[in-house]
Amino acid sequence: MLTRVLALSLLAGCTLADAQAQNSRPTQTAAVTMGQDPFRLESIGLTMFLPVDSAAQASRVGSVSTVQVIPKDATWMLNIQTPKSANTETTAAEVLDNILVQVIASGDEVYDTTPGQRAKLTGMRGRVTEPRSAIVINGREAQRAYVEIPQDSGPAVVRGYTVFRTVPGQFATFELVTTQTELAKAKPTYETTLATVTFENPAMVFADRAAAVTAGQRLLAGLSQEEFRRLVENGGTRWERLYRPASSGSEMDATEIAYRRIAMTMGNRGMVMGGTSSRSIDRQEGFIIRIDARALDGKRTFDSRSVFFVTPDGEEEAWQVRNAVREGTKVSVFTETGARTGTSMSVQLEGTGVPGEIIKPIIQGDGYVSRVLSWMLPQIIVDAKAQADYGFYTYQSDASAIKLRRDTLTAPADRPNTLLLTTKLTEDRPPQVTVFNSEGKLIRTELPDGTIWEPVTLEKLGQLWKAKGLPLD
Fold this sequence. Notes:
Layout (H helix, E strand, L loop, with lengths): L1 H11 L21 E8 L4 E6 L2 E8 L2 E8 L4 E6 L10 H15 L2 E4 L7 E5 L2 E11 L2 E10 L7 E11 L2 E10 L3 H12 L3 E2 L2 H20 L3 H11 L1 E8 L10 E14 L16 E13 L2 E11 L5 E12 L2 E12 L2 E8 L2 E6 L11 H14 L4 E8 L4 E10 L7 E7 L7 E6 L4 E5 L5 E5 L1 H10 L6
């Protein structure tokens, strides 16, 4: 849904990019050359190498999050998902069998249409070309199978599946999608890529998360309501521009992508909906962060208004993210409205031309922070000047779920009088780096795709957009 994409691009300032780590060795076979750097999916401790000239990106269909690996020639696609099962006894074989049933059932049904008789289902067009079998990859057992789905026109679609059980109730599935005509090339590439898959010890992954969350809780435990109020009142209002720098270094040659205004203030809960109310709940006092943003994408203009509220004790919060997409005379509106009391949260999603949806994310354990506090974390961490790896659970609009956010503060020796805050809004998203001076003043935020969020005055922002003929109203 566009509301999630907009919340990601306009508010978080993130982009979909290769999630690749550094400091590794190249891997290759005689038939398939692999890239130099490993791809990591930190939520399940996965490390693997990707073929050269291929890229990994995050995608989302409905409630399912997927990592897609696609080569430049687009002759195949690798989908990586991390499904969970409430039944910790479920096996990889059972998961794969269920996948095969669903894939075969998604193909056309074949009926006996003998004249004078009632049509009778005789089978499915799809078929299993290689039955499920157990394999071992780097000492870990997995299950693999291939299916073929004939098409009305063109070559049949071939799907290959490899399923790992990483821990009880948690799985990693790798789906190859290609055509029969490309299978001879795609299959060796797929199997060679899967041969590089390794998983970290789950206990180490969980211990690392727990240590980061504990550090985050310790940091926030020292922040009183009075100090929090001071941060909000001192935060005031700032403007930022998102742009892609030009090789010339000139601001006039840079590509303007978006701008946003971030305002922090004291207020009441009723401000979330933008109006006044006589209801006692709407008169609750607390902290407010409002973000108004505009982004450009070709002929489309995206306008976003987001208001986040939290009570001083952090026990209750409410928010609304409202996005308008304009293309010519057509306007589509998408809204996310959320509320939380204690550990109970409800989020309503609505949009032009799409069915409404209500989701109830689950808050488990400690370490959750409100959306207001999530926006303030960079300044809180920098003010503390404690170089550490912090972890916080927070609701993410683009994922419609509560995710673990990681923040790491460093003071690199090669950049004197500078503090760097490296942030991963989810474990499987490329990091962004926010630069502060030694006094904790925000300089800029560098996104993984090379674009930059940078503080700017309203006057300068207006001059730049006007000089470049960009819409300001």
